[in-house]
Structures are given as structure tokens and as C-alpha cells.
Amino acid sequence: MKKILALTLALLTLLLCLVGCASEKEEKKESFEFTIENYPKMGGSLANLPLGEAVTATVLGIDRETASSMIKFEGSTTDNYEWLVDGKFDIILAYEMGEDAKAYAKEKGVELEMTPIGTDALVFICSLENGVENLTQEQIEEIYKGNITNWKELGGEDHDIIPYQRNKDSGSQTLFDKLIPLGDELMEAPSDIRIGSMIGLLEAVADYENSKDALGYTVYYYLTNMEADKLTTSKLLSVDGVAPSNESIGKGEYPYTNDFYVVIRKDAAEDSPERILYNWICSEQGKELAEKENYVVKQ
Fold first, then answer.
1. Cβ neighbours of residue 134 under 8 Å, at least 6 residues apart?
2. What's the CATH number for 120-250?
3. What topology does CATH give the domain 42-118+260-297?
4. Distance separating alpha carbons of residues 294 and 289, to the nearest angstrom
5. Which long-range contacts (CB under 8 A, 24 or more apart) does 195-198 make?
6. Model confidence at 27: pLDDT above 70
7. What is the pLDDT of residue 212?
8. Is the pTM higher than 0.85?
9. Which residues pair with residue 127 across a beta bridge?
10. Please, are residues 275 and 269 in contact by the beta-carbon 8 Å criterion?
């Protein structure tokens, strides 16, 4: 009987110790406080800049302008993944990871951990003066194969189509290649219609000479939330009769949708600032913040 009592007391003591240790760990986790000094180095795709600013301002309790000065959303999406691999960034908010970035991470022996936090869409734009309002997926494929070359084939005027493309390592080109996988059938774009930045493409479609004949693509959030003034001279095209919107993207009705992610190195320690920030962005609080910034949030 004494042995049983002693064993029971020992088990109770061990249980209380485990509970106490867990509570202590949880308390330390909850008491972590971000400061300007320990805040992770953050970068990412340009269309995720507003989210990066909002996250930084919220967790540090600082104004938006100061938050913006602390993060670096520049370079291509591929650049940002490579900078995360190399340690220039601790955490990124980014669009689809392209094949070059995947190969780079593999070459460096670095595994990345990524969670989808929202959904965006690849959208097609043309001049406001263009009479075409809708393209089918098949028509888009034929345009970028070089088989449809005139707007009159699409119900527009008799003008040659100028089908702009993005540079290979951009996030929007990675989306294009994933969602419209033409492979070797993708027409080779002359250098003057291959654009190196999202704003450059929007300006080519909306503002430049011959813009009436131009066709381009970008991501929905960037155009409608960050460069909405371009919609005074250009317009979004429906695809298969579905106009892109937060609602049609969220419901998956618009055909060209894809996730964007919060990403860290897989070897980030559980108690590291980047891991704690990563978990916060994935939490309900993080999702609510993204929703306030008008992103289509993953449920």
C-alpha cells in the first residue's frame, strides 16, 4: 500500500512539474515583445507591401511611415526568395515561388516553410478605348502563342495586338507560367514588349503611344489597390464572362487565381522573432489585419 501511495505521489509530482513547465513556456511565449531592435528583416513581393506595412506597424505599435522604412519590398519575387535563402531577409510575404528560386534553395541546401495567407489573381488589362470587354481562356492562350494577332478576331477594331509580357523572374510572370502553362509554345516577346516592372507594364497599357492596341497582365491587388489611378485610362477584362473582384476571386469563380504566402526558413527556431511573427501572421489576428487591407484572405 505504501509503495502504491509513493508511486501515486511521484506521478502527481511529475504531472505538476510538466504542467508548470508548459505554463512557464506559454508565459514566455505570450510575453515576447517585438522591438525595433529584434524585429525580423522583412521583404517580399511588391503587391504585399501594404500587408507588410500593416503587420509591422501593428506589432511594433508604430506609425505606418516608420514601419514602411523598416521593410524592403523591392526586386523581383525570385530575388526575394533568394535573399531569404541567403539570410538577407528573415521572413517574406510573397507570391508564387518560381522554378529558379526553387533551384537556388535546393542548391544552397535550404528548406523553406510557407503558409498561404491570401488569394490573388492574374488579370488582363487593355486600353479603356478598346471595345473588347471579355476574353476566353482559349483566346488568351492563342494570343500568347502568337496565333491571334489582331483585335478584330476578338470583336474589336482592326488593329494589331501588342501582347506585353513580364520579365521571367517576376511574380506575375511566374503566375502566368503556372496558370497558363504554354511552355515552349509561349511566343518569344521582343525586348520592347517585355516589361521589367509591374508599374512599367501598367504604364505601357494605360499611358504610352499605341496603348490602345496593348494587352497586358498583372496581379489584381496591385492594380486595384495600389495603382487604381491607371483604371482611368485602362480596364480589367473579364475571362470566360467572369469579371475579377474580391468576391469572384474568393469564391474561385474567376479562373486565374493563386495564393500568396508568408515564408521563413524551415530551420528558424521556435522562439525566434521570425517564427513568432510567422505564427502571428497565420493567426486569426493576422488574417483580420490582411482583410482590413482589402486582401482576399484564406479561411
1. 237, 238, 239, 240, 241
2. 3.40.190.10
3. D-Maltodextrin-Binding Protein; domain 2 (3.40.190)
4. 9
5. 195/164, 195/165, 195/166, 195/167, 196/166, 196/167, 196/170, 198/46, 198/47, 198/166, 198/170, 198/172, 198/222, 198/227
6. no
7. 81
8. no
9. 234
10. yes
DSSP per-residue codes, the chain: -HHHHHHHHHHHHHHHHHHHHHHHHHHHHHT----TTTPPPEEE-GGGHHHHHHHHHHHHT--HHHHHHH-B--S-HHHHHHHHHHTS-SEEEESPPPHHHHHHHHHHT--EEEEEEEEEEEEEEEETT----EE-HHHHHHHHHTS--BGGGGTS-S-B-EE-EE-TTSHHHHHHHHHS--GGGSPPPPGGGEESSHHHHHHHHHTSTTGGGEEEEEEHHIIIIISGGGGGTEEEPEETTB---HHHHHTT-SSSEEEEEEEEETT--TTSHHHHHHHHHHSHHHHHHHHHTT-EE--
Q: What average pLDDT does range 53-73 have in this prediction?
A: 97
Cell numbers linked to 43: 521583404
> Are the folds of 42-118+260-297 and 120-250 the same?
yes
Q: How confident is the model at residue 1 (pLDDT cuts 50, 70, 90)?
A: very low
So where are the chain's domains? Answer: 42-118+260-297, 120-250
Burial readout 225-238 (b: 16 or more C-beta within 10 A, e: otherwise): ebbeebeebbbbbb
Cα-only R_g, the chain? 24
CA angle in degrees (0–180, nearest 5) for 10-15-18 = 125
Q: How far is CA 5 from CA 10, 15, 16, 160, 231, in A?
A: 9, 15, 16, 91, 78
Cell numbers describing residue 102: 526553387
